[in-house]
Structure formats: C-alpha cells, structure tokens
Amino acid sequence: MILAGDVGGTKANLAFYSLKNTRLHLLVQKQYPSNGYADLHELIAEFIQETQLNADHVCIAVAGPVVDGSCHATNLPWVIDAGLLAKRLNLKNVELMNDLEANAHGIYELTDDDFVTINKGDIKKHGNVGVISAGTGLGEAGIIWEDRKMRPFASEGGHCDFAPNGPLQFELLQYLQKKFDHVSCERVLSGQGLRNIYDFLRDQNKYPQPEWLAASLNAGDAPSIISKHGLKGETEICVEALNIFTDIYGAEAGNLALKLMATGGIYIGGGIAPKMIAKLKEPRFLKAFLEKGRLRNVLETIQIKVIMNDKTALLGAARCALMHAGIFHHIGAV
After folding, report:
1. For the residues of 139-196, what is the DSSP string, one character each?
2. What are the distances in angstroms from CA 247 to CA 50, 108, 150, 253, 272?
3. Most-buried pick from 14, 206, 220, 333 (CB within 10 A)?
C-alpha cells in the first residue's frame, strides 16, 4: 500500500495506491486546503483517520526545497522533517521530495490523452527534458539522460531573477522593485504574479479599472477573476494582464529549454496552464518561447506539451515511494 501526497501552498492532494502488474491503481484520493492546517502531520493524520488505511510506503511531494529530508515550505508557514513526521504518524518511513521533481516522475505515468501539444518540434528520444509549472508559486525541474535512464531532478529556478523583455516589462520590474526586495520570476509567473501584473497596469494608469471589477477582486479569488475576464476578452485591463503573463510564461519556458538543452521536450504543468490552454495556443506564447536570438533554430525543434492531468505530481510521489523501497527503478528508456 502506497500513501502519496502533493502539498502546495493552496491545496493538498493525498491518495492511497496499490500496485498491480507494475501499474499504480488509485484506491482513494482526497483534497484538502493546505493553509487550513497547522502542519503537515495534522493534515495527513486526518486523511489516515478518514480512510482507515495503512501505508507500507510513503512519499510526500512539497512545494519548496528539500534538503536532507527537511523542507521549509515556500508558501506555507511549515517546516517539514521527514523523520519527525514518520515518528508522529507511527510510520516506518516517510520520503519527502520537491513537487516539481514529483511532476517529472509522474509524466511517465500519463497517456497521450493527458497532454495538449503547443509545439510539435522534433523530439529526441534520449534528450533532456524541462518541466515548468505556474500555480500558487512557480516550479521548475528537469530530467536528464544518464546511464541509459531518465533521472528527474529538482530545482528552485522559479526564484531566479525576473528578466523583462521590452519597455512595458521593464516598467513592470521597476514597479515590483518598489514592493519586493527581490523580484523573482515567481513574482510575475504564478497566481499572485498575475495579480501583481494587474496591479501594475492599474496603478500606473495603463488601463482603467471598472468599479464592478474592483469590488469583485476584493471579494473573491483575484487571479481566477482576472484570468476569467482576460480569456473572455471582456475587460481591457484583464486582457492585457493575461497577455503579459502569457508572454512571460513563454519566455521563461524558453529560458529553461536553453539551460537544460531540453531536446526531449518542455512540459508545462501546474494548475494555471490547463485553465488557460486557449491562451497558450495563441501565437504569442510560442513567439515569446522562440525569441532567443541566435538560438531560435534550436528552440524551434523542441516539443512543448501542456500537462492536463492535475494528479501528475501525486502519481510521481507514488512512483518514488516504490523507487525508494526498491520496487521501481529509475525511469528507463522511453
């Protein structure tokens, strides 16, 4: 029995899986508001109590850097220690891993129906792969080809400096520098990042903010509201905020592709991309991805796919639980 978790800054997905004929089979899965719990122990304890199931192998994917079995969650006030968590839950062992590394593992549990292709490219069977996911935060990871196996690895690339393109994005950077000590890419490429872009357009008088929209943003989920009206083309300020967000997403995906020489493809995960798939299919995303000067011809050959399955990290965590138990090995040639 495998207990897997995908814990982000907004929500947490927990599930029990069984293994049948080398395939993972979901037994039960539940979602919780992660910011509604004092710590991860409390959240997992509630799930175990509700399901009345026991785990032989446990792996939890968390949004943040995992070092020596410990993680200070990026967007939650939690410090998570795998050893302490196992002791408090009376479990034999708990593995912690970065959520984007889990996403990378989970890709190999998906089928063609779980993807939407943005750029067909010329995929190399044994090429490196990049994974980028905007959600509550911005995660980035990679998969390298080594010793005839694909090996996913974590990074904290989402916290690298935001690199603006064009005069408007330079103005955006200058605006955000007055608000934050460090303007990372996550400050503009995440749920809150979309809100930051919107606030910039409003505060710098680029576009008017309708009174009804101001009231709606104050009362509800601002990023979702901005995205909704931007996708419908209903409100100029929302449309432009989403345009800038899409441009930055494409540019950062291109940056990751070059850093990893990701000839095996770029996968776009996270909770935001599937909701704005129509926008990502527009020419502006690919245009921003490709605009890398002398290396444009390299990027034109790189396949880009959007992951539509929101349980990918959960599947990856389950897979890694079995790997740590010696039941699965590192991903083979695919």
Report:
1. EEEEEEEETTEEEEEE--GGGSBP---HHHHHHHHHHHHTT-SS-BGGGTSSHHHHHH
2. 43, 28, 30, 10, 14
3. 14
What are the tokens at 315? 């599947």
Distance CA 150, CA 145 (A): 5
CA distance 143 to 95: 20
CA-based torsion, 86, 105, 161, 146: positive or negative? positive
CB burial of residue 1 (10 Å; 0-12, 13-18, 19+): middle
Q: Tokens in use for 175?
A: 């605006």
Helical ranges in the chain per DSSP H = 40-51, 82-89, 99-106, 166-177, 191-203, 211-219, 222-232, 236-260, 277-280, 283-290, 296-299, 312-324
Whole-number Å distance between alpha carbons of 2 and 20: 12
- Cα 241 → chain centroid: 20
pTM, two decimal places: 0.92
What gap in Å lies between CA 16 and CA 330, rounded to an integer?
Answer: 21
- Name the one residue in this structure whose structure tokens are 């302490």: 84
SS3 93: coil
Separation CA 189–CA 186 (nearest Å): 5
Amino acid at 190: S
Assess whether pLDDT exceeds 50 at residue 332: no
* Cα distance between residue 258 and residue 291, in whole Å: 12
- Domains in the chain and their CATH numbers? 2-106+311-324 (3.30.420.40), 112-308 (3.40.367.20)
CA proximity to 58, closest of 71, 41, 36, 73: 41
What is the identity of the amino acid at 152? P
pLDDT tens for residues 18-51? 988 878 899 999 999 998 999 999 999 999 999 9
Q: Which residues contact 54 (CB under 8 A, 6 or more apart)?
A: 1, 48
User: What is the distance between the alpha carbons of residues 245 and 197, in angstroms, rounded to a whole number?
Assistant: 8
